Amino acid sequence: MATERYVVGDWGTSRLRLFLCEGRGVILDSLDGPGVAAVKTPFDELFESMIRPWEALHGPLSAVLCGMVGSSIGWVQAPYVACPAKPEKIIDACIALRAGSVHIIPGARCDNRFQAPDVMRGEETQILGALTLDPTLRHGRLLLCLPGTHTKWALLEDGIIFEFLTAPTGELFAALRDHSILVPGEGRAAKTEGAAFEQGLKQFNDFPQAQVLHRLFECRSRLLNGEFSARNAAAFLSGLLIASDVSGALQLFATSMAETTVCLIGDPQLMQLYAAALQHRSCDARQLDGGGASLAGLTQVHQYIASRVETNAV
Asked: Which residue of 116, 139, 210, 235 pairs with 197 in a disulfide if CB–CB is 3.0 to 4.6 A?
C-alpha cells in the first residue's frame, strides 16, 4: 500500500512555506509563497493553484496550515483556544475548509500576569511539535522561550500550555535600529553577535535595577565617545534588549519554574543570543529548531485528524 501524502504549511504574515510530506513528516517537496499580508487573490484560489502540480502527480491532498492564515486577515478566522490549552484541545478546535480537506490550526489566548490579554498564532504549533520531539517536556512545570519578532514565554504544566507572555523584542530592535539615531545607517546591516552584544548583556546585568529605557541612549553616547564603531552599536542594542527580555521573564516566572533550564524554540542564530543571555543569568538552555518543531507539530495535527477520520469511517 502506498504511503499517504499530504501537505502542511506555515502561512505567516510575510511568508508562506508549504511542504509535501509523507509518513511521519518526510519532506518530498516544498514551495514558498506570499505571506498573508501580501495576498491579493482569494486564499482558496491561491492555495489550490500552488498545490495543483502536486495533486496532478499524487491525487487529492489533505492539508494542515498554521499561522496568520487563521487570523482576521487570513483565509478564515480560527478562534483562539483559551489557556490552559491541552494539545488535544487545540487540535479539536481546528477549522475545516475545502470540504474537510484543509484544516487551519487555531492560536491560543490567555490573560497574562499583568492582567492583560495575550495571544499567539503559529507558536502553539511549534510547542505541539516540541512536545513530540522532546517528550520530557510533557512532564512537570517548564518554561519555554520562542524568540522572534514577538518573543513568546510560555509556561507548560505536564504538556499543557498554562499561560504565556509576549515581548515584542525583535520588533522593537528593528524599529530602533532602522528608524532612530541610536544606530548609524552604516551599522544597520551589522551582525548582532560578538563582543559588543556581550557587552550589552553585561552592562544590563551590572545594573539590574535600571530600566532598559534609561540604558538605550548608550548605543549613541558610547559611539560618540569613541568606544563603539557604527557596526557595534546595533549589537550592543540587541544585547540590552535581549538581556532585558530574559531578565524580566525569569523574574516573572521564577517561582513557577521547576528547574533553572529554559527550552528555546526558534531560529538557531537567534537562540544562540538568548542562550548567551540566559547563561549570564545562571540559567541553562535546551534548544529545538523552530522549523523542525513547526513541521513536527503540523504532522502531529495531520496524523490526529487522519486517525479520527478513519475511526469515524469504521
From this structure: 235
pLDDT tens digits, residue range 34-51? 999 999 999 999 999 999
Record: fold of 167-289: Nucleotidyltransferase; domain 5 (3.30.420)
* Mean of pLDDT values over 137-165: 96
Enumerate the H helices of the chain as residue ranges: 43-58, 87-92, 123-133, 169-179, 195-206, 218-224, 230-253, 268-280, 290-313
Cell numbers representing residue 117 in the block? 490579554
Contacting residues for 224 by C-beta, under 8 A, at least 6 apart: none
CA-wise closest residue to 17 among 7, 9, 27, 28: 9
Give domain limits for the chain: 5-135+294-313, 167-289
Task: Report whether the peptide linkage leading into residue 60 is cis, meaning its omega lies within 30 degrees of zero.
Answer: no
What pTM does this model have?
0.93
Report whether pLDDT(314) > 50.
Answer: no
Cell numbers at 105, concatenated: 490550526
Assign domain 5-135+294-313 to its CATH superfamily.
2-keto-3-deoxy-galactonokinase, substrate binding domain (3.30.420.300)
Query: Could you say which DSSP state residue 157 is in?
Result: E
Cis peptide leading into residue 268 (ω within 30°): no
Task: Please tell me if the domain spanning 5-135+294-313 has the same topology as the one spanning 167-289.
Answer: yes
The pairing of strands 63-66 and 102-104 is parallel
Which residue has cell 546591516?
A: 189
Under 8 Å between Cβ of 88 and 97: no
Mean pLDDT of 6-12: 97
Q: What would the grid cell of residue 254 be?
A: 521564577
pLDDT in tens, 175-206: 999 999 999 877 666 666 689 999 999 999 99
**Is residue 61 packed enough to be buried (19+ CB in 10 Å), middle (13-18) or exposed (0-12)?**
middle
